[in-house]
Amino acid sequence: MTAIEFVDVTKSFGRHAGRLLVRQRLLRWLRFTRAERFYALKNVSFRLEAGEGLAVVGSNGAGKSTLLSLAAGLAKPDSGRIRVNGRMATLLELGTGFHPDLTGAENIRLNAALIGMTRRQAEARFDAIVDFADIGDFLGEPLRTYSTGMAVRLAFSVAINLDPDIMLVDEVLAVGDQAFQQKCFERVRAARRQGRTFLCVSHASGMIEELCDHAIWLDRGELVMTGRVRAVLDAYRDSNPARV
Amino acid sequence: MWNGEYGFLLRNLIQKDFKVRYRNMSLGIFWSLLNPLVMMSVVTFVFTRVYANRTPHFALFVLCGLVPYNFFTVAWISGTTSLVENAALIKRVAVPRETIPVAAVLSNAVHLLIQIALLVAVSLLSGVFPNRYWFLLPFLWGAEIVFLCGISLITAALNVFLRDVRYVVESANVVLFWLVPIFYSFEMIPQRYRELYQLNPVAALVLASRTILLEGAAPHAVLLLKLTLSSAAVLAIGWLVFQRAKDRFYDYL
C-alpha cells in the first residue's frame, strides 16, 4: 500500500501575499499583470510505500518544509495530486499549540485534542505522555516556567503518543539534551520496526541513514535525485564538499 | 488526516480561552460582570438624571440591550481575529480550521452565560418575575450564537487575506452601539425605519428579550421567524465561504 504519493506537484506563493495596498492592486489589475510568484516546488513526484522511511535532503530554501506541509495537508498544491493513506502525526516545530499560562497537564490535553486524539485516547495515554516527557513535579506548573528543553520534550511526547501510521518529522529529533535525543531516536526506531511510515527532513545524516530506506534530493524546488538513502546522501555531499 | 473529535477539541479550546483569560487576574470571573454593570450604571445615570426619561425599570431596560450587544461585539471581533492570531497553529497542525473561529465565539458564549445570570439577578431585583415566555430566552441567545458563528466564519476567513477586515469589524461595532436600541426603545424609532431595524439581528434580539422580560409577553412570531431564518442563513453562507477559502489560508498566514 502507498502511504504518501505526490504526482507532478507544483506549489507557488505570491510574493506580496495579503500585504498589498488597494492602490497597487488597482494598478496591477488595470495593467493586466499577474502577481510575481515564487515556486517552492516544481513538478515533484515521488511515492512512499507504507512501512518505509524517506528522507528529504537539500539546502535551505530547497522546498523541504513546503513538501512536508503539503504532505500534512496544511497547504494545497497549485497543480498535481497528493494522496495520503493512514493516520498521520506531524512533528513540525513542536509545541505550536502550547500556551505559556496553562499548566503542563492542561497543555497535554489541549495539544492532544489539537493533533487529533479523542478524549478517550488522551485520557488513556496521559500517563505514558508524562512518563516519556519526564518533567517530574512540573506537571502542575504553568508552561512558562519550563526550560526550553522541557517544553519540547513534552510536545514531542504528546505527538509521538498519537501512535500514528505515518510520522512527518522536521528536524525535531534534535530536541532536548543528548539523553533525550537518544530516547526520541529509540522511540522512532521502535515505531519504524513496527512498520510505521516515516518521512523526515534532517541534516543529521547518521540518523537519516538508520531510519530511512530512500531519500529524495531537492534543489530550488526541483527533484534532483531519488534513490537509496546512501546513494542520494553521497551524491548530495559530493555536489558540495562543504556539506557534512 | 485529522481523526480527532470535534467536541473534545472545541471543549479544550474553550477551556483554554477561559483559563488563560482569568488565570492571572485577581478578580477572576468578576470582570465579566463588572463591564456590563459599569455600562449599565453610566447609561442609566445619563438617561435618567441628565436626560429625563420615564421608561420603567430603566436599568433593566438598558441591560437587556447591553448583554446581547456586548456579547455580539466581543465575540465577533475575537472570532474575526482568531485565525490570524493562531497563524502558527494553522500552519503547523492539521487541526480542522473551522473550529478556531467557532471556538472563539463559543468561549465568549461562556461570558454570555455569566452576564445572563446578571440579567436575571437584575430582573428579580427590579421586581420582574419569571413568566412562561422566559423559556423562549435560551432560544433567542442560541440564535445569536448561531448567527455569530456564521458571520465570524466569514470575517475570519476574509481577515486572513485582507487584514483590514478587523478594523472594519471594529468600526461596525461602534456603529452598532447606536443602531441597536440599547438606551432607546423601539417605539422611539420613526415608523419608516422600523422594518430596517428588524433586519438587524442584534436589534431584533434586544427587542424580543425586552418584550419577554419587561412586558411579560411573547415576542411577535414573525420576529422570531426572521431571527431563526437569518441566523441559519448566515451560518450556511459562513460555512460555504469558509470552505472555499480555507485551502489558501496557509499561503496568506
Overview features:
A: 244 residues, alpha/beta, Rossmann fold, 3-stranded antiparallel beta sheet, 8 helices, 9 strands, 37% helix, B: 253 residues, mainly alpha, 76% helix, globular
What would you note in describing this structure?
The complex is a heterodimer of chains A (244) and B (253). In chain A, helix 3 crosses helix 4, helix 3 packs across helix 5 and helix 4 packs across helix 5. Chain A has two domains: 162 residues, Rossmann fold (3-Layer(aba) Sandwich), CATH 3.40.50; 65 residues. In chain A, the strands form two sheets. Chain A has a six-stranded mixed β-sheet with strand order 5-6-7-3-8-9, sandwiched between helices. In chain A, strands 2-1-4 form a three-stranded antiparallel β-sheet, covered by helices on one side. The two termini of chain A are 34 Å apart. Chain A is an alpha/beta fold. Chain A is globular. Helices cover 37% and strands 26% of the residues of chain A. Chain B is mainly alpha-helical. Chain B has one domain. In chain B, helix 2 packs across helix 3, helix 6 runs antiparallel to helix 9 and helix 6 runs parallel beside helix 10. Chain B is globular. The two termini of chain B are 21 Å apart. Chains A and B meet through helix 3 of A and helix 1, helix 4 and helix 11 of B.
Concise overview:
The complex is a heterodimer of chains A (244) and B (253). With 244 residues, chain A is an alpha/beta fold. Chain A has helices spanning 22-30, 64-71, 104-115, 119-133, 148-160, 178-193, 205-211, 229-239, and strands spanning 2-14, 37-49, 53-57, 79-84, 88-91, 166-170, 197-201, 214-219, 222-228.
How are the SSEs ordered, and which strands pair?
The complex is a heterodimer of chains A (244) and B (253).
Chain A: E1 2-14, H1 22-30, E2 37-49, E3 53-57, H2 64-71, E4 79-84, E5 88-91, H3 104-115, H4 119-133, H5 148-160, E6 166-170, H6 178-193, E7 197-201, H7 205-211, E8 214-219, E9 222-228, H8 229-239
Parallel strand pairs in A: 3-7, 3-8, 5-6, 6-7
Antiparallel strand pairs in A: 1-2, 1-4, 8-9
Helix pairs in contact in A: 3-4, 3-5, 4-5
Chain B: H1 6-23, H2 30-50, H3 58-85, H4 87-92, H5 99-125, H6 137-161, H7 165-179, H8 191-199, H9 201-215, H10 221-245, H11 249-252
